[in-house]
Specification:
Mean pLDDT of chain B: 93
Oligomer: heterodimer
Number of helices of chain A: 18
Radius of gyration of chain A: 21 Å
Shape of chain B: elongated
Structural class of chain A: mainly alpha
Structural class of chain B: alpha+beta
Number of helices of chain B: 3
Helix content of chain B: 25-40%
Strand order of the largest sheet of chain A: 1-3
Low-confidence stretches of chain A: none
């Protein structure tokens, strides 16, 4: 009761009763089970069945806590870190079983069996537009081995999730961001607090450079030279000095941007200062109906929202305007951090701070449904890999 | 006007929620179909280009692919892919005169060993009988445009085109 009264006085959403929270969670529980039944639960393998049951329970439990506490970020983070940690577990295991190595041999690229993740999508657009050519050694349709669902399925998935969430992709679907979010959560306080805000523009420069290079060289330049996540997925087998240099770059970028800097800054540094896909995805915040606003009538301004943002998507100017920057990935950290309830979920076209909880609920149902569908299957696979070793 | 904008906002949010529910059952399939209908293809530097001719040999075939030319500043050479299959029907050592352009004259002499263990690295020698093609000696798989690799039940040899020929395209 005291907690509710304090929250109400501060203008924040009050915690719900367990009854209401459970009622609001029932649709998501049904959805999670439905998603599990669509794939893994039909599987004969006991480890996969247990893993999918655990995943459905985990996702439902987190959603219940979101409904109960009216807090988004801290519960979403559990899901996101699990996604980031379990993706490499499942993926590397699969690569080792099918190929025996994390290095992609040239034979596999010629056979079109390079798994296609979402990161090269912006790099493929110009070569495809000018020459109808996809500059990636994968297959368009589902294929054998590591080809998986093919490029068509990944592009379709990305498009659907982008229509639903915009840049929210980076908070609810990206299976790489969870590692750095986990690392950023390790220290209580940031060691490096002063970061030049101009560094926020680097991903746009990387995006432009990589798009032009991919067109000129007809290869996915980011995947070839800069992707830090090659260190925890797969990489071009080092057949020569160039390959060796590429792999050294991958490992160094991973160590710096995904491990060390997130611990020092408490920010998602790879997403904030490098990721060209994240910059590209920012454009789709313009098409998404959901965003986060700062209610000027309540804002002190204490800049706690700015400090809490993992991607530096709030500036002094943007707070004055009552907006986040284009790079906002709708993680909800600023909403959770604001002691006055001034940072609020918002539906475009509606008045700011009028029924923000309604906006939050509508966004969360859509985003969590996507998370259960896409992220859920990845978490299940990672868990099943571990369970196979245990059972 | 404000009322209308608000209603449109909520309608958009409702539509987004509906899209989310439809994604696994309908949207993903529709979008994937739409993508495949764009008529895009994987870069031939990787895929090797379409087959233009099949040469029948004793129990196996040699597929001759269309010449692949690099785009803009692509670092690979132009090449022609030759594909021997099935591997199980190949002799222990293949030495073959291959007529690539189909004019009745042999263009290259290709020779390589076919080890029983699929993981054993392959090496190929190519003697150019036609100046359009480059010779290769003891080549493994250094580049997409000059290599020998085993892919499933086939052995692929990529023979680079001589510089002048590649530039004629």
């Amino acid at each position: 009761m005291a907690e509710a009264a304090c929250a109400a006085m501060a203008g924040k959403m009050e915690p719900r009763s367990w009854g209401k929270a459970v009622l609001l969670t029932v649709p998501m529980a049904v959805w999670s089970v439905l998603m599990a039944m669509g794939g893994p639960l039909r599987h004969q393998d006991r480890a996969v069945q247990i893993a999918s049951g655990l995943t459905a329970a985990f996702l439902t439990g987190l959603f219940l806590m979101m409904m109960k506490t009216a807090s988004t970020y801290r519960w979403r983070r559990w899901y996101f870190v699990a996604l980031g940690v379990l993706f490499p577990v499942g993926f590397i295991h699969m690569v080792m079983v099918l190929r025996g190595s994390m290095g992609i041999p040239i034979e596999e690229m010629i056979a079109g069996r390079t798994p296609f993740c979402f990161l090269p999508i912006p790099l493929l657009i110009l070569p495809a537009a000018f020459t109808k050519t996809l500059v990636f050694p994968g297959s368009i349709l589902p294929g054998s081995g590591m080809a998986g669902g093919g490029m068509a399925m990944m592009v379709a998935l990305w498009l659907a999730l982008t229509l639903v969430m915009g840049k929210g992709w980076c908070s609810y679907a990206c299976f790489f961001g969870g590692i750095e979010e986990g690392m950023a959560a390790v220290p209580k306080k940031a060691q490096w607090k002063k970061i030049d805000p101009r560094l926020r523009l680097v991903p746009w420069a990387v995006l432009l450079a990589m798009v032009l290079l991919s067109l000129a060289l007809f290869e996915p330049a980011y995947c070839m030279w800069l992707c830090p996540f090659k260190a925890v997925s797969e990489y071009v087998a080092a057949r020569n000095m160039v390959g060796l240099v590429q792999n050294v770059i991958f490992v160094m970028l991973f160590a710096a941007l995904v491990i060390v800097l997130p611990i020092l800054t408490k920010k998602r540094t790879q997403c904030t200062f490098l990721c060209p896909f994240g910059a590209f995805q920012s454009i789709f915040n313009k098409t998404s109906v959901f965003d986060i606003k700062i209610d000027q009538t309540r804002c002190s301004p204490c800049v706690l929202c700015q400090k809490s943002c993992p991607t530096m998507s709030l500036s002094d100017e943007s707070i004055k305007k009552g907006e986040t920057l284009l790079s906002c990935m709708k993680c909800g950290a600023c909403v959770d951090a604001c002691p006055k309830g001034a940072a609020v979920w918002h539906i475009k076209g509606t008045d700011v701070a009028v029924k923000p909880e309604r906006a939050r609920l509508m966004f969360l149902y859509a985003a969590w449904a996507m998370a259960a569908m896409f992220g859920g299957s990845i978490i299940t696979e990672g868990l099943a890999t571990i369970l196979h070793q245990v059972l | 006007m404000k009322w209308l904008r608000s209603k449109l906002g909520y309608a958009g949010a409702g539509l987004t929620l509906a899209l989310a529910m439809l994604t696994p059952f309908l949207l993903m399939g529709l979008f994937a179909q739409g993508f495949t209908r764009l008529g895009l293809h994987v870069d031939e530097i990787y895929s090797g280009g379409p087959t233009v001719r099949t040469i029948q040999e004793n129990g196996y075939t040699i597929e001759v692919h269309r010449a692949v030319h690099p785009h803009l500043w692509q670092t690979e050479k132009a090449f022609v892919e030759l594909e021997w299959k099935p591997v199980s029907a190949l002799p222990e050592r293949v030495t073959e005169l291959v007529d690539i352009d189909g004019d009745g004259q042999a263009d290259v002499r290709v020779s390589f060993d076919v080890p029983k263990d699929a993981k054993t690295p392959l090496r190929v020698n190519v003697e150019a009988l036609n100046p359009r093609y480059e010779a290769m000696r003891g080549v493994g798989k250094p580049k997409y445009s000059e290599l020998i690799v085993r892919v499933d039940d086939a052995i692929l040899v990529r023979v680079p085109l001589a510089k002048g020929e590649a530039e004629q395209k």
